[in-house]
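Q: Structure tokens for this one, please.
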Amino acid sequence: MILKDRIVLVTGANQGLGLAIAQACLAEGASLMLCARDALRLNEAAGRLKAKAGQGQIVLHHPCDVSVPAEVDHLVAETLQAFGHFDALVNNAGVYGPLGTIETVDWDDWCQAISINLMGTVYPSRAVLPHMKARRQGKIVNISGGGATNPLPGISAYAASKAAMVRFSETLALEVKEYGIDVNAVAPGALDTRLLDQVIAAGPEKVGADFHARMKRIKAEGGTPLSVGASCAAWLASPMADGITGRLIAAVWDPWRDLPAHKADLEGSDIYTLRRIVPKDRGQDWGEK
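A: Here is the predicted structure, written as tokens:
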């Protein structure tokens, strides 16, 4: 029960990974505020979680579009009014955006994907910081993905926004470190969710034959269990991860539960961060003056 008596706010929590994160946090003892754009589906998800809540645990929900600052402000205010405080924010809400080459996709749709994925992470983080700073503690967990570390032709809004999210996480971690606030990003693995179905339905002509084939293979194999990324996010939102900050954690591959034993190694290092590769990093002897 690593989140016992903790209050966690989860965005995009009505389905997929967001719902799995909420379930993981609930199982670890947290009380929850859930948000998503689809009010009906959010209400259904909250009802299922309430049925699993233990003694003293509270599950609340509030419809919110994280790309609209006024709605985020209202969500944070509602959370504080209901609980008096909260301990962690998990920024999970996200979309792939339009699929296709940059000159063919709808420009407004492309910008909207950036607004949801990037601004919908930055603004909620901004909105909760005064409260976390006043308490001199808090956790912000941002859900990234393969788009942050690999180019994704045909899915440029997703790739650009997720890469920006990770660099924002690294930057914010340094800004708020003195206040005892930890900020991390999580790559949850290749998930079999509605986003995967969207890519498969788009076809190889829009997302590329290789990527499309890979997504179909993931669909056939079932993908990474949602519980893997959800457990990592819940752990990072807990006191177990105190002092672990400014990192991009691959939930599938990285030994995240062991990170407290390596705090000294992580401090001041670029381990688990986005960095530029130079020729010598790949065994080449050129590229330096």
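A few notes: The chain has a mean pLDDT of 95. The beta strands are 7-11, 31-35, 59-61, 88-91, 138-143, 181-187, 248-250.
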